[in-house]
Amino acid sequence: MDSTEDAGAAAELTRLVLDELGPALRWYHAEVARRVGLDPVELQCLHLLERHGVAASGLVGDRTGLSRSAVAKLLHRLERDGHVERSVRRGRAQEVEVVLRPHVERDATLDVLRSRVDEAMAGIVANLGLCGLERRSAAAAWAAATAVAIHLECRLLADAVTDARIRAARRRARVRAQ
Length: 178
Fold this sequence. Notes:
- The protein is mainly alpha-helical.
- The chain has a 3-stranded antiparallel beta sheet.
- It is globular.
- It is built from 6 helices and 3 strands; from the N terminus they run H-H-E-H-H-E-E-H-H.
- The protein has 2 domains: 100 residues, Orthogonal Bundle (Arc Repressor Mutant, subunit A); 50 residues.
């Protein structure tokens, strides 16, 4: 495959991920969150804790794009409703560690919903011939690398928006000062 072909294949994958998979995942997470009485960001936080076990509040903010204040409010709501447990990190009073707590109703609902997607994925794996460990590992590596790349791009976009807001505020302050 030459570089033109590689670029075309990459562009097609980008369109599929951003324009097809992204909206489908957003819709899926919104519906799942609705079924368990959460909003999509709260559900995203719980999924993060499920994957990482214990997580620092800074990681929650980084992965959700929320400010420190918004993360603190989010974690307070989740703790109040029995979904997480917070504790202060040793030696770091500003950092909070969060762990997912068992929650019978939420966990049962998520298990049912996830098992339906598992069944669909089993069919896809079989149809695409991803049953071998090597192929399955390659597909999983692609999905993980794609998630990291998109997360980093979101970070850059968020930082660009923050920079633009700061510049606009400075311009307004200069105009007022004149």
